[in-house]
């Protein structure tokens, strides 16, 4: 198919928003391992899960139902931005001189700018329905926190967010967004929890991490009977909710008579990759030649450099343990701008498919990622989130390989979010100051005054 323009674009009508989520668990080659209760070393009990999580979500965690109906109120809210477009990056293909077609699923049309609202709305809905009064969560650069803040406001629920301290001070715009939607936001480590006070006593300038923020969130949940923990990426239920992405993609590809050869997504925990690619796993298991490829930051790459073992989701080891790829729960990710990818482990379902040989992974240093993101922005206008730019960086390698072999492959990547609140990082890149690992957590002296 010759195309002289910049793009091609496939949209679905609003009534094609999926009416069910796809649960991959019954189709996996083997069942996921149990979550382990850190205090007993035994598999977690139903009671443990329901004290920590919203009841319906605890049930979804181990559900063997292949299809889960999307509640009407959630599907209505999806109409805010879904279905999302599938766009062909014709100018990018031409720039790379590849015989492959490059398509991307554009998840950045959501009100908060990323895929994260797919699960946030579902989680806030069930929390409200099951009678809880408040959700508590952790966020890195604030993508998850801002999505959940909006979702809680729409569903009528209070929200407390622990935001990684470095981002809280130096990347405050998503905090402002969360506060605008009505959430309470605290830096982690904070002096409002025992865990936060303990690690601040050891290291007063601790930059925080997703893992410290989860620990503090869990402590607050145990202190408040009406509160439950909401997790933005790790859990099976979170991946489940994101499968609206892959289901829409299937339909869009069917419209143009194509099947994917490569499905590429960035991985922090694996929620966007899971939602995007798991609906194609069965085809792969049935023999379709589909490569699912995870793009990670070189500085924090559990799938590429970690090991598959039992580890904890949080730094304090207070949450459940689980088998997955991990760099160790006490790993403090070095400063890079893709805040959403700074996490020591990955979702157990993503770890499992990697362990079963169904998922490939590559890692890239930050400067190469921003080269790719900038190239893409100059060709297509869309400015990718640093997280999404990892997927774009991986697309370049795959497309170049197709050029070498003359393969007219269909490459699809997940454009998980826009980078319009990450311009500080692009400005450092433009000024030639960006390093593969920053010396400090994104020094931004003008923000000093905001420190609390
Ligand atoms: C959070 C985030 C990611 C990484 O998280 P996953 O759980 O791996 O999807 C990627 N892209 C964007 C835009 C994000 O906000």
Mean pLDDT: 93
> How many β strands by DSSP?
15
Ligands = pyridoxal-5'-phosphate
What summary fits the major beta sheet?
A: 7 strands, mixed
**What fraction of the residues are assigned to beta strands by DSSP?**
15-25%
**CATH architectural type of the domain at 2-18 and 71-113 and 238-430:** 3-Layer(aba) Sandwich
Shape: globular
Beginning-to-end CA distance, first to last residue: 57 Å
- What value does the Rg take, in angstroms? 20 Å
Under CATH, the topology of the domain at 2-18 and 71-113 and 238-430 is which?
Rossmann fold
Which CATH C-level class of the domain at 2-18 and 71-113 and 238-430 is it?
Answer: Alpha Beta
Share in helix: 25-40%
Low-confidence stretches: 442-452
Structural class, judged by helices and strands?
alpha/beta
Strand order of the largest sheet: 1-4-5-15-10-11-14
Count of DSSP helices?
Answer: 19
Describe the structure concisely for a colleague.
The chain has 452 residues and is of the alpha/beta class. The protein has helices at residues 46-52, 55-61, 72-78, 90-96, 117-129, 143-155, 165-170, 173-181, 194-202, 210-223, 236-241, 243-255, 271-277, 281-285, 302-305, 348-355, 366-380, 386-405, 423-430, and strands at residues 7-10, 20-22, 67-69, 86-89, 101-106, 134-139, 158-164, 184-188, 227-230, 262-266, 291-297, 307-312, 321-326, 360-364, 410-415. Pyridoxal-5'-phosphate binds at residues 114, 116, 143-144, 233, 266-273, 340-341, 385, 387-388, 416-417.
């Amino acid at each position: 198919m010759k195309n002289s323009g910049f793009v091609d674009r496939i949209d679905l009508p609003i009534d094609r928003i999926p009416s069910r989520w796809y649960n991959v668990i019954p189709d996996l080659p083997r069942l996921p391992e149990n979550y382990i209760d850190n205090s007993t070393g035994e598999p977690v009990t139903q009671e443990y899960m329901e004290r920590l999580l919203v009841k319906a979500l605890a049930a979804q965690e181990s559900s063997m139902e292949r299809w889960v109906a999307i509640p009407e109120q959630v599907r209505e809210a999806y109409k805010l931005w879904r279905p999302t477009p599938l766009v062909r990056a014709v100018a990018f293909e031409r720039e790379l001189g590849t015989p492959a077609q490059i398509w991307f699923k554009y998840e950045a049309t959501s009100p908060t700018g990323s895929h994260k609202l797919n699960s946030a709305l579902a989680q806030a809905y069930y929390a409200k329905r099951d009678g809880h009064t408040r959700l508590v969560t952790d966020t890195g650069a604030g993508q998850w926190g801002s999505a959940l803040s909006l979702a809680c406001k729409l569903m009528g629920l209070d929200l407390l967010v622990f935001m990684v301290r470095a981002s809280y001070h130096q990347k405050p715009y998503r905090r402002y967004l969360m506060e605008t939607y009505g959430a309470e936001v605290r830096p982690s480590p904070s002096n409002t929890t025992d865990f936060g006070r303990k690690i601040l006593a050891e290291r007063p300038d601790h930059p925080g991490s997703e893992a410290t923020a989860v620990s503090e969130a869990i402590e607050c949940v145990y202190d408040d009977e009406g509160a439950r923990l909401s997790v933005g990426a790790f859990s099976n239920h979170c991946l489940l909710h994101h499968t609206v992405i892959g289901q829409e993609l299937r339909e869009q590809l069917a419209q143009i008579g194509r099947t994917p050869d490569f499905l590429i997504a960035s991985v922090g925990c694996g929620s966007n990759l899971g939602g995007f690619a798991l609906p194609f796993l069965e085809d792969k298991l049935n023999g379709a030649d589909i490569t699912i490829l995870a793009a990670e930051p070189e500085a924090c790459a559990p799938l590429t450099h970690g090991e598959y073992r039992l580890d904890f989701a949080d730094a304090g080891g207070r949450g459940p343990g689980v088998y997955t790829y991990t760099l160790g729960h006490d790993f403090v990710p070095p400063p890079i701008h893709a805040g959403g990818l700074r996490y020591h482990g990955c979702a157990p379902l993503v770890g499992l498919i990697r362990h079963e040989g169904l998922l490939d992974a590559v890692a890239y240093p930050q400067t190469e990622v921003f080269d790719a993101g900038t190239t893409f922005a100059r060709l297509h206008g869309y400015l990718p989130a640093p997280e999404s730019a990892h997927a774009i960086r991986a697309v370049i390698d795959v497309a170049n390989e197709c050029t070498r072999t003359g393969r007219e492959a269909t490459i699809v990547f997940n454009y998980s979010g826009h980078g319009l609140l990450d311009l500080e990082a692009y400005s450092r890149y433009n000024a030639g100051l960006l390093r593969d690992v920053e010396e400090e957590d994104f020094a931004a002296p003008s923000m000093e005054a905001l420190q609390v």
